UniProtKB/TrEMBL annotation:
GO terms for cellular component: cytoplasm. Residues 11-318 form the Glycosyl hydrolase family 32 N-terminal domain. This is Glycoside hydrolase family 32 protein. Residues 321-470 form the Glycosyl hydrolase family 32 C-terminal domain. One of its GO terms (molecular function) is sucrose alpha-glucosidase activity. Keywords: Glycosidase, Hydrolase. Belongs to the glycosyl hydrolase 32 family. It comes from Halalkalibacter alkaliphilus. InterPro entries: ConA-like_dom_sf, Glyco_hydro_32, Glyco_hydro_32_AS, Glyco_hydro_32_C, Glyco_hydro_32_N, Glyco_hydro_beta-prop_sf. Coiled coil: none annotated.
Length: 482
């Protein structure tokens, strides 16, 4: 159990069958809820339900029964959940605060928004008798509601993806909604349909400042192809989103191919903004070589902003709870120098690991890491003269299940490469540059024999203060014992 080939060992995946977007992320009574787009009858996308899991630490998950099933209004697409502490909806019954899920119901050509409620901490759900709460206004694409309580406006705010723009709705009771404003036409990237919005207030590192960030997934149209995530930084006055930047500016959250539909948890105990994304891409999601499940979620990440000369940049770091997976099996090297004739080989590591690299001085044109190195490899490379970094997975192992999969994916970096941290699971790689200023997330399907890691440099040398590999534990041990 949970030890099939390519089964993620420290990322969430369903026991079996198809999963896509995270939904209904909310913290309530000691539990982080993770609902997700789920097709319980197959390993390909199909009639959508909401699967469900809960966690006390964002790392170990308990699978729960399916939360929402399709009904006569349609299948259950993406959406969110809130705890209605003030019982604004009047749906509370008994002592327990009422949880309300707000989601899209999909029938071909008719998407509308519905709600359901739970009196038992999300274990069982009742659909509202007067669904939908927002009927289709004549749009083909209108979906993925994300709702939060806005203190100053004293109302619930909903962001809704409408093809090429986001609409903001307001409500005092979660039942009746008023369309307040729209944002997005002519702004940012429009290579595909806009999906899964999220509007969050994010702290700026090293200051007391906070900015509003509007997150928008887009498919296709990502910088390296297929599904990707852009964001806009600005202000939200309780009614409208006002961007700081010009319509031409596009910011990308993750330059990898496999980070999509990420949204944030409501009501986190630390009040941090924490999000999780679906680690796949619609270009090949239905073909990835895993069985009997398909798809995993990313590591949950804390989101902050960093002020730069060009405005604000989203910064992502893995939640600190991941540190509990570290084992004492580590390899640590200090003051090492790597150049063309002298790569640094690290054997006997993995397959689950965290790698931390601190650069002292880099003269090479390019340096990098061969991950899961052997017959094949995935190459993380820093092209210092170009101000770019990349992940090449064309030789990463099993790649031929889709012509869209083998790729070399490129990201810019701000100034220099000081720190690299990455997390390697059995079938994914998440790389955080300079404490999360730039991130690349990629699926890989390496051969079991390829376990080495190698640091290399071309045209010059690189000196490292520290190179550390920490082997990690998996999260499914408890499930295996059951
Ligand atoms: C994003 C998405 C959403 C939709 C869901 C359907 O990946 O297309 O827009 O609600 O998946 O499963």
């Amino acid at each position: 159990m949970y030890n099939e080939r390519y089964r993620p060992q420290f990322h969430f995946s369903p026991k079996e069958n198809w999963m896509n977007d995270p939904n209904g992320l909310v913290y309530f009574k000691g539990e982080y809820h993770l609902f997700y787009q789920y097709h319980p009858d197959g390993t390909k996308w199909g009639p959508m339900h909401w699967g469900h899991a809960v966690s006390k630490d964002l790392i170990h998950w308990d699978h729960l029964p399916i939360a929402l099933f399709p009904d006569e209004l349609g299948t259950i697409f993406s959406g969110c959940a809130v705890v209605d502490y003030g019982n604004t909806s009047g749906l509370k019954d008994g002592d327990e605060d009422v949880m309300v899920a707000i989601f899209t119901q999909h029938e071909e050509g008719n998407q509308k928004q519905s709600i359901a409620y739970s009196h038992d901490r999300g274990r069982t759900w009742t659909k509202y008798h007067n669904n939908p709460v927002i009927a289709n206004p004549g749009l083909k694409d209108i979906r993925d509601p994300k709702v939060f309580w806005h203190e100053d406006a004293n109302k619930w705010i909903m962001s809704l993806a409408c093809g090429n723009h986001i609409r903001f709705y307001g409500s005092s009771n979660l039942l009746e909604w008023e369309h307040m404003s729209s944002f997005g036409e002519g702004y940012g990237a429009h290579g595909g349909v806009w999906e899964c919005p999220d509007l969050i207030e994010v702290p700026v590192k090293g200051s007391e400042e906070k900015k509003w960030v509007l997150i928008v997934s887009i498919n296709p149209g990502a910088p390296n192809g297929g599904s990707g995530m852009q964001y806009f930084v600005g202000e939200f006055n309780g009614k409208s989103f006002l961007p700081d930047e010009s319509p031409e500016t596009t910011h990308w959250a993750d330059y990898g191919r496999d980070f999509y539909a990420a949204v944030s948890w409501l009501d986190t105990p630390t009040q941090e903004q924490i999000w999780i994304g679906w680690m796949s891409n619609w270009q090949y999601a239905n073909e990835v070589p895993t069985h009997p499940w398909r798809s995993a979620m990313s590591i949950p990440r804390v989101v902050t902003l960093m002020k730069t000369e060009n405005g604000y940049n989203l910064v992502q770091t893995p939640v600190k709870e991941i540190e509990q997976l570290r084992t004492r099996k580590t390899i640590e090297e200090h003051d090492v120098i790597t150049h063309k004739e002298k790569p640094l080989k690290l054997s006997g590591v993995g397959p689950l690991l965290e790698m931390d690299i601190e650069v002292k001085e880099a003269q090479a044109d390019t340096w990098g890491i061969h991950v899961r190195h052997g017959e094949s490899q995935t190459t993380i490379a820093f092209h210092l003269k170009k101000g770019q970094w990349s992940i090449d997975r064309t030789q990463s192992g099993e790649v031929d299940f889709s012509t869209e999969f083998p790729s070399k994916d490129i990201a810019p970096f701000e100034k220099e490469v000081n720190k690299v941290q990455f997390y390697l699971d059995t079938s994914s790689l998440e790389v955080f540059l300079n404490d999360g200023e730039s991130v690349i997330t990629e699926l890989i399907f390496p051969s079991q024999e390829d376990v080495e890691m190698e640091l290399f440099a071309r045209n010059g040398e690189v000196a490292f203060d520290r190179v550390k590999v920490t082997n990690l534990k998996g999260i499914w041990e408890k499930e295996r014992e059951l």
